[in-house]
Specification:
The chain is mainly alpha-helical. It has two domains: 42 residues; 32 residues, no CATH class. The relative contact order is 0.14. The model has no long low-confidence stretch (mean pLDDT 92). InterPro entries: F-box-like_dom_sf (IPR036047).
Length: 76
């Protein structure tokens, strides 16, 4: 069963979930078309502890890392 919704409608629904990280994480696994909008909210701010910086750097350098462009601000 495939149901096609306009992306604008999906984006509006996901925008209403902006403060519900658990739901956004679940929604990002439902449909490939939903991933971008979920990441827009999930990676708005990335907070790191100083002890995690090198691990995070390695994650960003990984060949299949696809979320780096979604980070809009970072704090350490």
């Amino acid at each position: 069963l495939q149901m096609d919704f306009p992306q604008e409608l999906v984006d509006t629904i996901l925008d209403h979930l902006a403060d519900d990280r658990r739901s956004l994480r679940a929604c990002s696994l439902v449909c490939r078309a939903w991933v971008s909008r979920c990441r827009f909210h999930l990676f708005e701010n990335c907070s790191l502890f100083p002890t995690d910086i090198l691990v995070f750097r390695d994650l960003l350098r990984a060949p299949h890392c696809t979320f780096a462009q979604d980070i809009r601000s970072m704090s350490v």
